[in-house]
Specification:
Length: about 400
């Protein structure tokens, strides 16, 4: 297993199939389209001509890939980062087939395609279809986050708080790489406002530098200062918050079968553990039944430990940010320092481990959880660890 830091640095020895190499930097588009069904699915997906006069999403994606490869800044990257960014260029509009709508009057929209695309890219890379081997977790996440934020340089000034938006994004993705992908996205299209869009990206670069988050995550005085900044509407990122935490709560997160129980036994022996699986067994409630009583019992046990200021671990899938936030609010109310430990495993490893469990989870449940998965990030807790199996 491995643990990665907040910058989500990809493996340097990983490469994406058909990623162009020096000295010719050739984009073998026909081979990629033939190999990857998710590329072929972009054919015929329409785009608003005002913004994409070049044609459908497949044409645009090819142009973006070629534009990225032509950029000197991309060619200067280490091989692993070149591969991750090339994959992100191919996947940046992967959700447009499911998000594109033709509204009344004939206007074409693809709302939420970046956020949906992040989840779809994560699933595709996790399953590893059409890949010779599983995509390493840090590469997968670097690609998925680039897909999610590829439009930020064009729209960051439209956010209610532009500074907070870029500072938050910097905790999960390198914004200089986001800007590079956005530049390729603009250069890989035909539109009348191309120069204006490139100017926005240049402004984004300067703004991120001013906020101290262009080539790495914005640094905070302490982990608690970062935690409080993202929990307070009008906080300053430069403010050093008074740390009133008194004990630690560890929240496990990960799909069924990823190895959460194993990690707990090895890393936190002797700690009190609130396990939703164990409570289901005690209450004789199946995973497919209503879970209200299980959650209520778990929260009551947590309150007992919180009132005693006793460190403990909360062991459940916790795969969505919304669900984790509800628990973090509870823990923080008792002045706990919160550490999220996310456990990940490749598709084949996870499904094998799940099948070997005494109470295995149906495959369709695992896939449903994966489709909704929000991998934890540093905006959520005092500390976040990412642990994965190779």
């Amino acid at each position: 297993m491995n643990i990665i830091d907040g910058e989500q640095t990809p493996f340097e020895n990983w490469t994406f199939p058909f990623c162009p190499e020096p000295p010719h930097w050739t984009v073998n588009w026909e081979s990629m389209q033939a190999r990857f069904a998710w590329i072929a699915a972009l054919a015929g997906v329409p785009q608003e001509a005002q913004y994409h006069a070049e044609g459908d999403v497949l044409i645009h994606t090819r142009m973006v890939a070629e534009a990225l490869v032509a950029l000197d800044a991309w060619r200067a990257l280490p091989p692993g980062e070149r591969a991750s960014m090339f994959a992100a260029a191919l996947l940046h509009d992967v959700a447009k087939p499911v998000c594109t709508k033709i509204e009344e009057g004939g206007r074409i929209t693809s709302k939420n395609h970046a956020r949906t695309g992040e989840k779809l890219a994560r699933q595709l890379l996790w399953e590893g279809l059409d890949f010779a081997e599983p995509v390493p977790f840090p590469c997968r996440e670097a690609i998925a986050r680039l897909v999610r934020f590829h439009g930020l340089p064009l729209w960051f000034l439209d956010k209610p708080d532009a500074a907070r938006a870029v500072i938050a994004a910097s905790q999960v993705v390198r914004l200089d790489r986001v800007a590079l992908l956005a530049e390729a996205d603009v250069r890989g299209r035909v539109c009348q406002d191309r120069d204006e869009l490139l100017a926005r990206i240049a402004l984004f670069r300067e703004f991120c530098k001013e906020q101290g988050c262009y080539d790495g995550p914005r640094q905070f005085a302490t982990p608690h200062s970062r935690f409080m900044y993202f929990r307070s509407e009008n906080a300053s990122p430069a403010y050093q918050a008074y740390d009133d935490t008194q004990f630690e709560v560890v929240m496990l997160s990960g799909l069924p079968g990823a190895g959460k129980d194993h990690w707990l036994k090895k890393q936190l022996p002797g700690w009190p553990v609130i396990s939703l699986d164990q409570l289901r067994r005690e209450l004789k409630i199946a995973p497919t039944d209503a879970q209200g009583h299980v959650v209520q019992a778990a929260r009551e046990r947590a309150r007992e430990l919180l009132r005693q200021r006793r460190p403990f671990a909360w062991n459940a899938t916790n795969t969505t940010k919304m669900l984790r936030q509800q628990l973090i609010d509870l823990f923080a109310a008792y002045h706990a320092s919160i550490r999220i430990v996310y456990i990940d495993a490749p598709f084949a490893v996870l499904t094998g481990q799940n099948a070997a469990r005494a109470e295995s989870v149906p495959q369709e449940v695992i896939m449903r959880l994966m489709r909704k998965l929000d991998v934890p990030d540093l905006t959520e807790a005092h500390e976040v660890e990412w642990v994965w199996r190779e």
